[in-house]
């Protein structure tokens, strides 16, 4: 079964750039987009439609923006790390911020890596290649529990959850 990437990104232009960059490096891994933090939590929790793990598989990697509406990437990261069944899930902060406070907060909250999103396709393709080679091709992570989601505290939703978009089945 191919590894899935969960891209948590609210900016459509960044999504276009990121998916184009991954396509340029030959990524054949399915990539699913969550448009905000609450949507990412719903996906990872397997709530509602997301309970079907054949259709919505657990990701092998989460690429997580920091600055998003509703719930920030740091709030989502803290939620992920508070879930015992997701403790081993690799989370890479992939954001335009290079502020020291964001870097410290991300690592302090359990991020596995912190990458600054390049603004140009050539640079983004280079970063996408590094992500692909390490996190998808080389990294071996322990399997995540995929049992039906246990009752968990709500992450203070501020708006109804939206379904993540899938970029075809494969990028």
Describe the structure.
- There is one protein chain.
- This protein has 171 residues and is of the alpha/beta class.
- The chain has 5 helices and 6 strands.
- The relative contact order is 0.23.
- Helix 1 (12-24) packs across helix 5 and helix 2 (37-45) runs parallel beside helix 3 (73-82).
Q: Report how far the terminal alpha carbons are from each other.
A: 15 Å
Cα-based radius of gyration, to the nearest Å = 15 Å
Low-pLDDT sequence parts: 147-153, 166-171
Total helical elements: 5
CATH fold descriptor: Rossmann fold
Percent in helix: 25-40%
CATH architecture grouping: 3-Layer(aba) Sandwich
Largest sheet: 6 strands, mixed
- Considering the protein shown, what is the CATH homologous superfamily? Response regulator
Taking all residues together, what is the mean pLDDT?
87
The domain tally reads: 1
Amount of beta strand: 5-15%
Adjacency order of strands in the biggest sheet: 5-4-3-1-2-6
What's the level 1 CATH class? Answer: Alpha Beta
